[in-house]
Amino acid sequence: MVRDIKAERSAMDRAAEGKTVLTNFDETCREIPDHPALKWKDGSGAWNTLTWSQYRLEVRKAAAGLAALGFRPGQFAVIMARNRPEHLIADLGVLHARGTPVSLYNTLAPEQVQYITAHCDATFAFVENAAFLAKFEAVKDQLPSLRTVVVLDPDGVALDDRALIKRGEDADRRDPSAFEDWRKVTPDDIATLVYTSGTTGPPKGVMEAHSNICWMAEAAQVFLNRSGHRHISYLPFAHVFERFVGHYGAMRQHTIVHFCPDSAQLFAYALEVKPTSLIGVPRVWEKLQAALSAGIQADADEQRRTAILGAIEVGRKLVRLEQAGQEPPAELLAMAERSRPVWMAIRSKVGLQDLEWAITGAAPINPDVIEFFQALGIRLWEGWGMTECTVGATYNPLERIKNGTVGIADPGIEMKVAEDGEVLLRGGNLMRGYYKEPEKTAETIDAEGWLHTGDV
Question: Which residues of 187-212 are buried (b: 16+ CB within 10 A; e: fewer)?
Fold first, then answer.
């Protein structure tokens, strides 16, 4: 199939034109106000839900509370919290107050917290609890711009989330029209800074504009066009993978986000959520394959164990023929039909019986791992991207996944190989640059708009 990348680029440009993260959020809240948006467990283990209209109300109160406490347009706020609704409410509250939110990894040491918070001159911080607050307290003398810290789990040691919301309610009651100032946010405004790992120096703040995010969301609609997925959010929001899929993409695709604050509990949560989509780094899939395989081998019933292994091998044979572009013989198709209940039983043990697609990314994966899950009927595919291109640059089409590859370019993305073998990218999803580092930006994005990925 010959693709017209320029035509694709024009289509993506038109689809994203004039949009911001906030217009996408507003549109979804208006389209499906009573549909579930966010789900999480409380202390008793019961599930709680925010509909899109309730979600919007909480964001409205957070934005008004921020403004009442002196947060101003153009300022930055950092967020250190696990995967929970307040993380995204704070994020969108900052955006609606016409500021820029920055999520931090919860594992950062105090000196790393200090570097990022000072680098972006954050005036506000949202922290989950006293333990995270202590990281800021340890370096507060080196954070001259930081004025206010909001604690999501109140313990009396700082301004808590309830006080912020109360101020927001009071401010919104006095001037309900103030919330509409979010409409002044433009596609060129910076929606977030995503700090890279800094393996070759201090972390760099990747500037993702609203236009970058909305452009990528439209591209994803082309190959993941399905509304209402059940998604488990367990990867850090400081990483662009979860930030896009579990936050920005969720708005565009009407995804129901289920928060899992402890990644070790992912598949315990999956048993309850029964996700229809799932993302993970290779280690997640490798550990799951190992656990499932160990469980099968531990089955004391030799006949049953042999039957299960045989069913998986039937699935593997189907996958290999599909990968080779060959039609499976009738006998193998009949065996596959008999094996299907076994595949579903294995998937059900970890809550993946409803899974429609799954993505692995952020690092290379052993093709055998992908084949294992595909043998169970799970459409697991590998993609490639980087923070500088707002998460993704390639994908594997569900109808023609090619194992051992990262697939083809996302819709509208130009790719070429430089003379030295480096992969270059160009598209509407490319970052605006590195915050406060124009020289490094110029080294990464050339005068013709090509992103030099560093990959060969």
Answer: bebbbbbbbbeeeeeebbbbbbbbbb
